[in-house]
Design a protein that fits this description.
With about 650 residues, the protein is of the alpha/beta class. Helix content is about 35%, strand content about 20%. It binds 5-amino-5-deoxy-1-O-phosphono-D-mannitol (M6R).
Length: about 650
Amino acid sequence: MCGIVGYIGPKPVVPVIVEGLRRLEYRGYDSAGIAVAGNSAGLELRRAPGKLVNLEAVIAANPISGTFGIGHTRWATHGRPTEENAHPHRDCTGSLVVVHNGIVENYLALKHELTARGHIFVTETDTEIIAHLIEQELADAAKNGKQNNGRHSERSEEPPHFANDATNIPLEEAVRRTVHRLTGAFAIGVLSAHEPNKLVAARMGPPAVIGLGDGEFFLASDVPGILHHTRNIHFLADGELAVLTPHGVTLTDFDGHPLHLKIQRIQWDPIQAEKAGYKHFMLKEINEQPRAIRDTTLGRISLDTGKVFLDNLQITEQEFKQATQISIAACGTSWHAGLAGKFMIERLARLPVDVDYASEYRYRDPISDPAAIGLLITQSGETADTIAAQRELIAKGSKTLAICNVVGSAVTREAQGTITTNAGPEIGVASTKAFTAQLTALFVLALHLAQVRGTITADQSLRLVDELSKVPSKVEDVLRSVDLQCQELAKVFHTANDFLFLGRGIHYPIALEGALKLKEISYIHAEGYPAGEMKHGPNALIDETLPVVTIATKDPNDPSSVLKYEKTLSNIQEVTARSGRVIAIAIEGDEEIKHLVEHTIQIPQAPELLLPILEVVPLQLLAYHIAVRRGCDVDQPRNLAKSVTVE
Ligand code: M6R
């Protein structure tokens, strides 16, 4: 989604903002712009459609400078990705600008009202109305001020834009009055040429952070945009408004009541948000998975006792014991993790689990028992649908637990506890390391639930914890052994028009994830199916052009896993009998499957519930290499955004 960077401080403003926007590119965007003020030229604006290089070319051709400014990368919602629709947007006077992330739902009604009052709109966007609303608030305040001073306003009939320089309320007050009129979601940054060295930011919905440096202050829509300048971050909460000046930051609610900054020290190393020699962030992040998994178990498992520790939860062991259900809500890849988590929790803790698309949850009037525990799975912690599902769960009386990669994000603030996935910043739009870290966190949670509910023995715990601790090095083995093979497979299959991904049981969510990875970065149509469903329809798709990736792994020590594997072998034969081209994911040493299929990718053996973490790695690499061969923008696929902060 849109990126915002604002800066006040001694450094040259334009490079700070442009570099910040570059570090937010992963969020996805299709135009960019910047406004700076504070020198004799007044407020200056540069914008360009397309990527940041276009904006840089515009700035190079027509340089600007100032002492404070804001920039924006726009992911189009209202209006095409053109120069005029790019942010920042101006009021009628051109002396006040706004950048915005989110959607103003009542913008049409407001636009009609403002047009009737003489405002002139020059874009198709919802954001532009915010600039005009602020302008109007300033004008109204100025007018009232004059009337209160006993002077009848001679200018009362003048268009509002003539009144902007005669304000008698500060910019932040006009912004406060404005945000009360907006419905929908917004994170905004505002500056006015008439109030030098002041940035105003407000949030209701999409994320925004304030960075506090040494004599310099930042606004951004996400931490990586400013992390190379400061690690001291205040995550703006819904309903908060911040005023940044060279002297510091003041915080209030939307009614002007003072609030305290809650500064968090971000531990991420800025280097973690760099490509570190890899061609793409996605490839780097795929290769970071062993560490992400290891760090997610760190301090949470005891290899001596098999015990699992989940600290800082406001959900007691008793509540976990008495829980009637776990209600999972998540989106996209995180939803796939939730589907796999259902198998883990139901099998180990014998507790029923529901898994919903967060975007559907609140609209189905869910029947939720207050003794059910809501579980939100989200990499960013800022996904609008997931936040809405969380609020629905809370409204129905449930406690909510988050599995999240961003400490301090919206979902974690509203949850009664968070199991942090310590994957480090994930920049590639296609989620990889966050997914395997989520699977790891879910396994840890399933073990914890099983231990407090007494559904597994101490010996079983010990064995599973031991197996979990071996997963990172097994992922390292997979990364070493399958990358070349995935490159070769990409050579063969990158021109395919469609792909099928099949799996059974806990392997079915991994099939879904393999299909999602492929479609989002290579734009090849792909579907994930439970292998047993093929005969109920999808078999009709099979011909000699269709690659069918089938997850056919097993835990030889687990009879139910072996049974599923055997059923999957039958499904494979149904595909090959119809000339479909099967690529099987199987465990090392499985010679039988090699005779049945065209290609086999082998992964190490593991217990059934941990196999998904290993299985997904070749699927990520396959998608990656196919996308690279097709010349796709792997890290920023078209039409997608990293953090989906609108419904
Ligand atoms: O930040 P979240 O985990 O809540 O994001 C959910 C989805 O938007 C996300 O997983 C999306 O599907 C990814 N692009 C998948 O790679």
